[in-house]
Amino acid sequence: MRTKQEYLIRYKDGNLYCELADIWIDPSKPVKKALITHAHFDHFTFGCDEYISTKETAILLKERVGDNIKIKTFEYGEEFKINGINISFHPSGHILGSSQIRFIFAEEKWLISGDFKLQKDQTCKQYEIVKTDYLISECTFGLPIFKWDESKKIAHDISKWITNAPEKTSLLFCYSLGKAQRLLNEISQTNFKGNIYSHGSIHKMNNTYRELGIDIRDTIQIENKKKIDQLKGSLILLPPSLSKGSYLKNFKNIQTAFASGWMSIRALRKRSGYDKGFAISDHADWDGILEVVKKSEAKNVFFHHGDSEALSKYLVEKESINVLLFGK
Amino acid sequence: MSLKKFSELFGDLDSINSTNNKIEVLKNYFLSNDPIDNSWAIYLLTGKSIKRFISGRYLKNLFSQIYEYPQWLIDTCYLKVGDSAEVITLLLKNKTTAKDKKLSNISLNELLSETIPALSKLNKEEKNLEIKNLWETLPEDNHLIFNKILTGTFRVGVSIGLITKSISKLINIEEEIISHRLMGDFKPSIDSYEFLINKNINLQELNSKPFPFLLANTIEDKIFKNSINDFQFEWKYDGIRMQLIKRSGNVSLWTRGQELVNESFPELVEKMSHIKDDFVLDGELLVWNFKEQIAFDFSLLQKRINRKSPTRSIQLKYPIIFIAYDLLEINGRDIREVKLENRRIELEKYFSKWQNNIENNISDTFKICDLIFPKDWPDALTYKEKSRENNTEGLIIKKKSSIYSSGRKKGIWWKYKVDPMQLDAVLIYAKGGSGRRAGLYTDYSFALWKDKELIKFASAYSGLTNMEIKELDKWIRKNTIEKFGPVRSLKPEMVFEISFEKIQISNRHKSGIAVRFPRITKWRKDKKINDADSLENAYELMKKIS
């Protein structure tokens, strides 16, 4: 077995790093060259000399942080070379533009899954199965208690939740990029036909999605002093950061909910402080992770993001897959 | 009606915070379901849960066996979820491919009166097979309810008061009447539900209603400016506040929470029914130490509260007494507008009359409260400090000239509670919580100094805010020295103020002391571990009190 220094990709200062190409993947601090899997802020940091991503990720990032960054873009599946290493992006199904990144060097294949899901999502490209020798996978929901319902069912539940409370304003908290657009797309296919408002941060992303050709229902940007009876019976999408503090005082007679995979557990739902939780996630559930591990045909697997102890043990014991540990 | 409706009701009640909305949801449920299902719903929601059929452990083992699932994986999941029935429900989502089987659409009534009783007639193997079959044929939405009923862990945040309110709204009849109807051995049946929603009130129902309770306020300094002679002083007992009502020969025992508890205390009801007069008494129910004439701890009373129809041996083991403070009505005459000092005279007069009735010795279940007569306010303080000796919480101070009004009206009754005992201790162990606190470290152990060693002296899990719990959880994960199963030993760094009610010698503990009701009252971030108290301080505290 090789030592970790010899791996093509390893952990360095808490980030994924390819020494041969001197390139970092979603680094959390400024570096020379950074590959970005997708446009969520926990995968992006300011101050890198150069970013490389898919076209959609680049557009979303610039919309969020401004034009002041240097991004080189590639299409899905398009190979490019850095120091003799072949690198390519492949759809990961997490949000619009999100990608897995494959490295090929001396006939050895490495795949970084990025954040991914297998579930259907009409607002981004479906996860692509990519064969590899080494797989570095996320493992946010790495326990078998996580099993997602079809998003259609969740959208139906949300629609029912709103229409059952016609006197109230329904505030649905969700991440402004990705989750919000997926929800909008799904909700527009339900019986709920009332008004949908969205917070500025979400509204901006909606517009960008639409410009990139994604079918998103129109929403009204929420202004602080909307008349209360105008909001009765309607849905308002807000980022989770606004759930605490004084922002909610702008509304009267509300019910609140949070859309997140963690909401499948009653204790977490109760503790979250929201009235209701909808278990919908843009990450893979247990079965999703297992499927990707198997179909990738990887002989060696690493996990990062999340508690991977149980998943690793399961793969070793039940599936005889070699799970390796990164030194963080 | 299908079980699905009840599952939905459970989901709704579980996610709604507002009381009014819960009442609305309940009302709608009752409106749209069969009387028999409604009566089962009431039976379950009021906590009259069915006997545990199998344990949570059994449920987990069975799942592991049937689906060849590693036990350790189920246990890991349990740590995250904190409830066996829920873990198995979530894991079943992966396993029940019921596509080839026809889903059963049984009702709540069928589940509870047929399916589950039938299970208990089977041998172990048949039983396991049948549970598997039910898992595979019950629609997924019903698994949680089914597993919870199997394991006897069905609980939802609904009080009997809420059920009472929703029925009361449903048929537009006063809550007290519904309370009275819900009293007793509520057997799920069409008849019992129809009786509950009957719009005709009979006279006896009207007769059992209690008066609104008068409540005491926490003492304020300004009271000390008044003459001590303006007030009546009583011990503040730590029991259950109640109104004991006897009208037209019928006795009803009401808690402050509008619960009728006749069945928990049959010996009292029986005794009081022999008294010739009709009356309404305000007082406190306690488990009483007749030898020393003081109350036993509240924990003993808890052994009686939730037990309906206690056996004779339970009655003897935990002997109760009703201590009357006040007389509110006598032989149909409402005397709440009479001054307290005069009501007291009436109370004493009638009590001695009842006591002198030789055929009926009431003194083994009923007395009136003793009064205390402090000379001045400093003397009152001395009494208050002595209250631990007779197991009371302090003093109740009542204005002699006051009438019995309702609610927490200012300036009539005051409570003067003895201060809790406190020590500053160091956090040394943490354990994962269960239920609502699953996945967080919420059970803590605290230590005091003995020379240069920290000795564990108490465990506590209440007192921190949710924000503090989250913050401490993060700290715990970063500062773990060692893991022993669910327990982590921690770097001694955090100091907390621990309050408790009682401190006594105990040879069961390494520290040599035991404290009662320990709870966290402050996170002393301002203190270093060297500032924490020592066992010696604890011993001194004990000496000071005894």
Summarize this structure briefly.
The complex is a heterodimer of chains A (328) and B (546). With 328 residues, chain A is of the alpha/beta class.
Plain-language structure description:
The complex is a heterodimer of chains A (328) and B (546). Chain A is α/β, with parallel strands linked by helices and 328 residues long. Chain A is built from eight helices and 19 strands. In chain A, strand 16 (254-259), helix 6 and strand 17 (276-278) form a beta-alpha-beta unit. The radius of gyration of chain A is 21 Å and the shape is globular. Chain B has 546 residues and is an alpha+beta fold. Chain B is 38% helix and 22% strand. In chain B, the strands form four sheets. In chain B, strands 3, 4, 5, 6, 7, 8 and 9 form a seven-stranded mixed beta sheet that branches. In chain B, strands 13, 14, 15, 16, 17, 18 and 21 form a seven-stranded antiparallel beta sheet that branches. Chain B has a five-stranded mixed beta sheet with strand order 1-12-11-2-10, covered by helices on one side. In chain B, helix 3 (35-45) packs across helix 12 (190-196). The longest helix of chain B is centred in the middle third of the chain and has 16 residues, at 340-355. The model of chain B has no long low-confidence stretch (mean pLDDT 88). The interface between A and B is medium-sized, with 25 and 27 residues.
Structural class category of chain A: alpha/beta
Please tell me the overall pLDDT of chain B. 88
Largest sheet properties of chain B: 7 strands, mixed
Uncertain residue segments of chain B: none
Number of helices of chain B: 20
